[in-house]
Write a structure and sequence with these properties.
transport; membrane; transmembrane transporter activity; mainly alpha; single chain
Length: about 425
């Protein structure tokens, strides 16, 4: 993956891979935060508040089922036409869907059409993000100098904490300046509408970059496959399975430590919304630290070691949930969130380099997108819904065991790659 680009090109490429995923994750997280805070009563009225929350979490899950389809579509064109144009298209789809969510009338205004439109636009968000992450990873990794693949590959994952900070920081500001009624009536819309400016920034940066050297070299030696998915299924099924399992832990841990935790902390534990979002914002910095540390370790000692350490750490992390996630002690809650998101950096950061390493350049976009998004369904798509149900049935300790199970599945995926 080495190349002869100028150092300035490296900086521009890394910024392009970071800014795009930051915008994409910002769009994704404002939906997640609004789901935890206001979407239940606005779009899914029900007699029991927990049923409203379950329905809102179900709408959140819609995007995870759209993501594999987005991964297939954008992966197909990314392997046939190139990384650059595909990344621009995915960003536009995500941005348009997000802005339109900010314009939606509520259930009280138009009845059942409101949740239907919300789910359709959520589907559009999922399609866009399905093609985004894999392409951004290839953009970074296929430009990386020798020995730097995982540190370069960690830049797209860093878009997660950057987007989270932007999204929840904006919600925190709105909470400081608006009362609950104003926030519920119209304030929640502002982060969705603000996405238009962020998408314009992302498009401007991405339109200024060139195609990756690895794609250019691959197309010079042989024409792109007519159906990359067919080649992937015929010749690369084992790494596809391994990569899918390997991503489960990161999705499960992230959505428990962010989306589920926000809803659980503000409703079941009784913390003020602004106080809990502030704790999440502080804790997310530990995720960025974990991503950086894991990327360095992966380049020095291998991605398998960094990912395995993260999976193993998820077991005691899950067991600590009933001890630390308690009412009246925001410090204990913050300690769990910080530890959880630091571990999240280890099970997430190396994926930006590890997944591309499983596939040849001719089908790499498709392979990365398929594995990452299938892992998203298995690890994250239903996680908030499952976690909410587990709490109702058996308490927060059950969610900890759920995290341990997700870590076990990802360890199996890592072992499959070692056997290869």
């Amino acid at each position: 993956m080495a190349h002869a680009a100028a150092p300035a090109s490296h900086r521009r490429i890394l910024f392009a891979s970071l800014v795009g995923t930051s915008v994409e994750f910002y769009d994704f997280y404002i939906y997640a935060t609004a789901t935890a805070l206001v979407f239940g009563p606005l779009f899914f009225p029900a007699q029991e508040p927990w049923l409203q929350q379950v329905a809102a979490y179900a709408s959140f899950s819609v995007a995870f089922f759209a993501r594999p389809l987005g991964g297939l579509v954008f992966g197909h064109y990314g392997d046939r036409l190139g990384r650059k144009s595909t990344l621009v298209a995915s960003l536009m789809l995500m941005g348009i869907s997000t802005v339109l969510i900010g314009c939606l009338p509520s259930h009280a205004m138009i009845g059942w059409v409101a949740p239907l439109l919300l789910c359709l636009l959520r589907f559009g968000q999922g399609l866009g993000l399905g093609g985004e992450w894999g392409g951004a990873s290839l953009l970074a990794v296929e430009y990386a100098p020798k020995g730097w693949a995982y540190r370069y590959g960690s830049f797209p994952p860093l878009g997660a904490p950057v987007g989270f900070i932007a999204a929840n920081g904006l919600f925190l500001l709105l909470g400081a300046f608006l009362d609950d009624a104003a926030f519920r009536d119209w304030g929640w819309r502002l982060p969705f509408l603000a996405s238009a400016g962020l998408v314009a920034l992302g498009l401007w940066v991405r339109l200024s970059i060139a195609e990756t050297p690895a794609f250019v070299e691959a197309t010079e030696h042989a024409p792109p496959p007519q159906v990359p998915l067919g080649v992937l299924v015929r010749s690369h099924l084992a790494p596809t399975l391994a990569g899918t399992l390997g991503t489960i832990a990161c999705f499960a841990l992230f959505y428990v430590a962010t989306l589920f935790a926000i809803g659980f902390g503000t409703k079941a534990l009784g913390y003020a919304r602004e106080a809990f979002l502030g704790a999440e914002l502080g804790a997310i910095l530990f995720m960025a630290l974990g991503i950086g540390a894991a990327g360095w370790l992966a380049d020095k000692r291998g991605a398998g070691l960094a990912l395995a350490l993260g999976c193993l750490a998820m077991v005691p992390l899950g067991l600590a949930m009933p001890v630390l996630l308690v009412p009246g002690s925001l410090g204990a809650v913050f300690a769990w969130l910080a530890a959880g998101l630091f571990v999240m950096g280890f099970v997430y950061g190396p994926l930006g380099g590890w997944l591309p390493s499983l596939f040849p350049a001719q089908v790499r976009y498709t392979g990365v997108s398929v594995t990452f998004n299938l892992g998203g369904i298995l690890g994250g798509g239903l996680t908030p819904l499952i976690a909410e149900t587990l709490v109702q049935r058996g308490g927060i300790g059950m969610v900890g065991w759920y995290l341990a199970g997700a870590a076990g599945l990802s360890l199996i995926g890592l072992m499959l790659t070692r056997r290869r």
